[in-house]
Specification:
Number of strands: 18
CATH topology of the largest domain: Vanillyl-alcohol Oxidase, Chain A, domain 3
CATH class of the largest domain: Alpha Beta
Number of helices: 14
Distance between the termini: 26 Å
Shape: globular
Strand content: 15-25%
């Protein structure tokens, strides 16, 4: 059972009473009805790839795995939608959609192992969300089993719909605290007609890289990807893969375009105007993929250095350079190695706090550094999490992020849908 008790964080799980490997809606209903009668807490989970402790077991709970509910029930090409079960792997849905000339847009970094149900539970984002939005933007309707075993269906198959409250939006991002998602109707989009083009630009200062990102978004260009990689991350990649890093490079912008609404030459021009020392576009699909690999090397390069606390703050796009400077200041003062990559088009930063591999959890000075980063994000008008969720790791900062009145409304919603407090207790709110 230990394999089903934890996620990808250092959070120490409790000891579950049992694990249910649900195969269909009936299994989930039976499990929830039993748990309701016997007052046993339930922790739903998908692929276990979460980074906030949201899927970790609590003592005496029933772990309810949806990973075996893997049916793509329907792809409707003319309506640009699919109906899927929660255990479907994100990348598998995208591949199935592309057979019909469509795509499933959300693409978290874990898309080859994460499940649709987990992405819905955390409102996951990904590299393409700068153009296509996060998971909530692709969720049209849900099938949900409530805490007492009742089944409800929210939303539908239409593009528009304002009949009643937006319950679909409520359950997306609720981290399994309000009900168990057993099916979803999701939006598909036309796949790009041409292979994407990748633009790489290097900058001598963070301010210049931030200005380039702000110019791209502020001028109405719509890149399908706009990423920023800081100096610390570039050095870690260079130490590993020898990418011939110019020591004067403070940051890199990696952008991608998949349509005529964002010509690659315009991305290059914005970067050059902002002071890029080098800016160029790929000339073929292989080169485009190779340039994007630089961004994908960030996490494995950090993991080579030790254990990593992977965080996920989000600030207004205009405050992105300032937020990165604040992170660098924290790293210097606290003596912590922090590598930062950012979805620059969204203002969503992922600082990776590296600590000794022999430690089970971050030591106090690393925790203190993370606390300063969270505080800085809130001070700059941002939020604690852009796409990973609150889970257990970020609950201590909820009061500062939400305020007492807003937290009270959260608790009232929780009480209405889960009066016994059985759904993923201790998580998210």
């Amino acid at each position: 059972m230990d394999a089903y008790a934890r996620d990808q964080t250092y959070a120490v799980p409790g000891a579950p009473l049992a694990v249910v490997l649900a195969r269909d809606l009936g299994d989930v209903v039976a499990a929830m009805e039993w748990a309701h009668v016997h007052r046993v807490p339930v922790v739903p989970r998908g692929g276990g790839s979460g980074l906030a402790g949201g899927a970790t077991a609590v003592d005496g709970c029933l772990v309810l795995s949806l990973a075996r509910m893997t049916a793509i029930r329907e792809i409707a090409p003319r309506d640009h939608l699919a109906v899927v079960e929660p255990g479907v792997i994100t990348a598998d849905l995208d591949r199935a959609a592309r057979e019909h000339g469509l795509m499933y847009a959300p693409d978290p970094s874990s898309h080859e192992i994460s499940t649709i149900g987990g992405n819905l539970a955390t409102n996951a984002g990904g590299l393409r969300c700068v153009k296509y939005g996060v998971t909530r933007d692709s969720a049209l309707g849900l099938e949900v089993v409530l805490a007492d075993g009742r089944v409800i269906r929210t939303g539908g198959r239409t593009v528009k719909g304002v009949t009643g409250y937006d319950l679909t939006g409520l359950f997306v991002g609720s981290e399994g605290t309000l009900g168990v998602i057993t099916a979803a109707t999701v939006r598909l989009r036309p796949a790009p007609a041409e292979p994407p083009v990748t633009v790489l630009a290097t900058f001598g200062t963070l301010a210049a890289a931030g200005e380039a990102a702000a110019a791209i978004m502020g001028d109405g260009l719509r890149p399908s990807l706009l990423e920023l990689v800081d100096r610390a991350t570039l050095r870690a990649i260079d130490e590993w893969r020898r990418i011939d890093l110019d020591p004067d490079t403070a940051a890199v912008i990696i952008a991608q375009t998949d349509g005529p609404d964002c010509p690659a030459r315009e991305l290059v021009r914005r970067c050059t105007d902002a002071g890029a020392g080098f800016a160029a576009a790929s000339t073929d699909a292989a080169e485009a993929a190779a340039l994007l690999d630089l961004r994908r090397l960030a996490y494995p390069a950090a993991e080579r250095l030790g254990n990593c606390l992977v965080e996920d703050v989000c600030v207004p796009r205009s405050r992105l350079p300032e937020m990165i400077r604040r992170i660098e200041d924290v790293a210097d003062r606290r003596g912590v190695r922090i590598l930062t990559v950012a979805h620059a088009g969204d203002g969503n930063l992922h600082p990776l706090f590296v600590f000794d591999r022999g430690l089970a959890e971050p030591p106090p000075h690393v925790q203190a550094a993370a606390d300063e980063v969270f505080t800085a994000a809130i001070e700059l008008g941002g939020t604690l999490t852009g796409e990973h969720g609150v889970g257990v790791l970020k609950r201590p900062w909820l009061d500062a992020a939400l305020g007492a009145g807003t937290r009270a409304v959260h608790r009232q919603i929780k009480q209405a849908l889960d009066p016994s407090g059985l759904m993923n207790p201790g998580k998210a709110i």
